[in-house]
Every structure is written in structure tokens, then in C-alpha cells.
Amino acid sequence: MLADFNITAPSLAEVMDFVSQHWPALTAVAIFAYIFSRRYLTPLRKIPGPFFASWTRLPRIFAVTIGKPHEWELKLHRKYGRIVRTGPDLVSVGDPAAINIIYNANDKFKKSPFYGPFMVYDEEGMLPDPLVISDKALHTRMKKNAYTAYSMGAMLQLEPLVDAVTDRLFVLLDKRPMCDLGKWLRYYATDVIFAVTFGEDLNFMEKGDPIGMMPMLEYVVGDYVAIVGQIPWLHNFLLGNSLVAKLVLGDNGLDGAALDLARKQVGKFRAKMTSEDITGPVTFVQRLLEQQRKDPASINDRELNTHAFGNITAGADTTTIAMRTIMFNVAKNQAIYRALTHEIRETAKLAHPVSYAAASALPYLDAVIKEALRIHPPNGIMYCRTVPAEGATICGKFLPGGTEVGISPWVVHYDEELFPEPEKFRPERWLDEDADLVAARKRSIFAFSAGSHTCLGKNISLMEITKLIASLLVRYDVELEDPKAELSFKCRWFTPQTGLRVKLRKRVL
Ligand code: HEM
User: Which among 128, 222, 284, 444 could disulfide-bond with 197, CB atoms 3.0 to 4.6 Å apart, if both were Cys?
Assistant: First the structure.
């Protein structure tokens, strides 16, 4: 047929010639076609959102890089509504009712490629870290084999270990009537997590950071992962590449120092268990080792080490952030300070060591903790998931399979209908007389995530926060060094603050 019309295929030289003559027009057509197809040739065209973000992730990458994705997402949700297209294949949901659709027990919405840079590898491959596992059977096994060790019952008998760390903190704070309390809370939380996990800590409070672990957690787990998680393929050329990781982080690679440390501490405890009778509270690792002894098939060495590694990497900075939020807001607001200290000192007459049972029964303290987790969630990036192959309808909009979707705690926690004047720290909203409203607020609290991937360390954290805040206010009168000061923070995977400088006055008891 071509011969009939005398059309011959152009030679390569002719094509090159055409391209070199018309490249500006061709480039413009290609860009237009790319933008058009990304923007419109997808069912996501029906999801509202800024034009720019519908064909490129650059706005979101920029927001995360400058540490302000929370502000960016909130602004978009206030403009476009409960569901917003924040990238060509990325959707942010701000509807608390959608928490149960995206994050539930059946695990249909798997962890998205965002979690790729979190993955840590050892000689056998990817570590079975519950945070990143998509394989449901393996994830269920990892949760089951540590279920008792993370339970509140197990935590409560560890209280004496927490109290011993608190005693040491107080000795140090007694000598520092003016200090950066935020820094001390971080050292404290790190010592506590080591103490409850391994039965001994590394004296972060006394020695600073003896193993250089804190910068690794802050810059790799907190910052790098949040930024590179937006463009996960890039990880293969950065810290996901063993050569680059070695050059940047040294021999241990990504998170390797924490993994090595976890293995070493577990090994030490195992040796102790075979050589001597262990007395005292049953630590996290001891519980897992005893379980392994009774039922070796239930948990292997690698899984046990992974849980210990998880505690080291996930347990301290998150809890620190929550404690900083509480102390800052309580010291900043005189009415709240008076109500809380009255409850702790006069009504309950708590004394150090404060038991979790006594402190957790205080309604105002409980409301203060809830409000702190609401106003400043310790994780700053939406917990990304992938829509299952069959697609899903969320907020009345259909999302095709493969879309990356998620909810940011910062967005649902600042919902103006549920939390009027959301930027105000107001514990009273948790004590509202309208029980249905309070129940709806509780269902919207998303700081610990929800469904099958809910935070495993929630009990440790709540026990530690509740006891420490009550103990601090039993021992000290606390004031901000500068009453007008505000905390500054960056919002990435973690949301660590700086600037919590206080005056402490030891109370006469
Ligand atoms: C205020 C303190 C804490 C907050 C706000 C917090 C927050 C979170 C969040 C948001 C997730 C889930 C992320 C997702 O859905 O993708 C998570 C998972 C996890 N957290 Fe926490 N966390 C805290 C303390 C702790 C502590 C103290 C530990 C350990 C001792 C811990 C261990 C874990 C583990 C192992 C997971 C993975 C669970 C899974 O995916 O099955 N966290 N945490």
C-alpha cells in the first residue's frame, strides 16, 4: 500500500535533520504531552489539587526538604477539601473517617515505596523490621512473637528500671537550674529505652552520645528517609548503594551501627542468662529470649535482634518529642500549669517515684498528653500506602490501584470541625462534656498510626511520658527561661524541636 502512494520511510539522517531543525517545537510538544497525560489521562484527574502538583512531585519534595510538609498539606486541604492530589500519583486524605479504610487489620493497602529507604539489610537480606514489611504472614509473625513483650503488663513490671533512670536525671537536673530541657529529655528517653530493652543503658545522660547514634537517627532516619522517600528510586544511587553508604556512613552503612549495637546487647544478655540467675524485672529482650527457649520456632535470633533494633531506632526520639511538647506548652500557659500541678501535687499528692497506675488515673494529665500528641505529632510525614490493584473509593473519589495514598497526622489533628482553633494547646477539649464529640476526637488521633501497623511501642511510650511528666512536676517548679519563646522544629519523618530552655526550682517537699 505504501508503494501506491509513493511514500518511503525517512532515513535516519532525515529524521536527525528534522529533529535538529525543529527541536524547540518538538521539546515543547513532548513537555506538553507529558504534562497533559500526567494531569488528565488518569482517573486521578477528578481529585482536586494544585495544577503543578498534578504532574510533578517537585512541590512536595520541596516542602519536605525545607521541613514544612505539614504546613503545605494543611494549606492544600483547607483550600481543596478532604482529599487532595499532591503528586501525579499521590493523594493526601484529610478525613478521619478514612483512617479505617486505609489503615486497618486486613492490610489491603500495603506500605508504599516510600518505606524503601527505611529498609535495612544484613547478610541474609532485608531485616524483618515490622515498620517496613509488606508480607502479611511475616508481619503477623513479627507482631505475634513480640506481642507479650510490648504489652502494658510487661511494661508495668519494668517501672523500677524507668524510676532508676529518672533518679539519675534528677541528680543531673538538680545541678542545672537553667538548662536546655529538650536536650536532657532526649538523653533520658534514650537511656530509658535501652534500660527497658536490655536492662542496662549506655549512660547517655552522663556521657552525652557515647556512640554517635543520635546524628545517625536524626539525619538518616529522620531527614534522609523523609526526603528520599519522595523519590524512592533515587535511594539506589544514594545510601541504598553500598559503596556510597560506606563512603558517607563508614563501614556500618545505613543504620548498621544501631543493628550492631542491638546484636551486641542481645548477645550480652543471652550470655548473662546462661551464666547467672537473673533477678529483677523481666526486660524486653529477656522476655523474648525466654520465649525462644520455651518455643524455639516462635522467634529466631534474627527476628529477636530486629525487635531490639526497632526499639533503639523508633523508641527514643518519638517519645522525646512528645515530652518536649508537653513541657513547653505547660510551662508556657499559666492556667494549664496551675491546673496540672494542682492535680498532681494537691489532688493526687503524687510523690517520686510516681507509679504509672497513679499518674495515668489523672484526667487532666491524660488530657495534656493527648493534646500534646495532637498538636505536635512526633511523625511529620503522611504514612504512605499503595491502593490495592482493584482500586478504592475514598471520600467519594475513585483511586486506581497503585496510587500512593495516605493520611498525615498533622492534617487530621488540625481538622477545624473536630478541633476548633486547632493551633491552640487546649487540654480541655479532651474533657468536653459532649461524650460523643470526645469519642470522635479520640478516633481521629493518629500519632501512633492505626490498623495492623499501629505503633508497637505505644505502651512503653505512654508509660514513660506519663510517669516522667508527673515526676518532673512533683520535683520542680518549671518556667520558660524566656516566657515569650517558641519552639522551632523541622517536620520530616520525625518532628524534633529545639529551644526548650527552662528554669527549674527544686521544690521543698
Ligand atoms: C510518642 C512516641 C511514639 C510515636 C508517636 C510513634 C509513632 C509510630 C508510628 C506513626 C508508627 C507507624 C508508621 C506507619 O503506619 O507507617 C510506628 C510504628 C512503630 N513503632 Fe512507634 N512511635 C512511638 C514510640 C515508639 C516506641 C517507644 C517504640 C519501641 C519501643 C516504637 C516502635 C515502633 C515499631 C516497632 C513500629 C512498627 C510497627 C508495625 O509496623 O507493625 N515506637 N510508631
Answer: 284
